[in-house]
Amino acid sequence: MEIKNLSQYSNAEKIILAEQLWDSVSKEELNISSEVEKELDIRLKNLEEGKTELYTWDEIKAHLKSIR
Predict the structure, then answer these.
(1) Running DSSP on this structure, what letter comes out for residue 7?
(2) How far apart are CA 50 and CA 53, in angstroms?
(3) Is the dihedral angle over the CA atoms 7, 21, 13, 56 positive or is it negative?
(4) Tens of pLDDT, residue by residue, the chain (68 residues)
(5) Taking the model in full, what pTM does it have?
(6) 3-state DSSP call for residue 60?
(7) Distance CA 9, CA 18 (A)
(8) CB–CB of 51/43 below 8 Å?
(9) Cα–Cα distance for residue pair 21/41, rounded to 1 Å
């Protein structure tokens, strides 16, 4: 499948398109192993409990530049 001429759309229109595509994917169709599902549940719980540090993209880029 090839998507052509995305440059003709505004960023807002592209975001709406991406949302519509994402929403069209049925959650039942996503086949993940029980191990992956367990890990995702752990990560979500840690996030909800504030046990996970979050970084901005700029912080990540700065860190990667500093270790090169």
Answers:
(1) G
(2) 8
(3) negative
(4) 777 888 899 999 999 999 998 888 866 677 889 999 999 999 999 999 999 989 999 999 999 999 98
(5) 0.47
(6) helix
(7) 12
(8) no
(9) 24
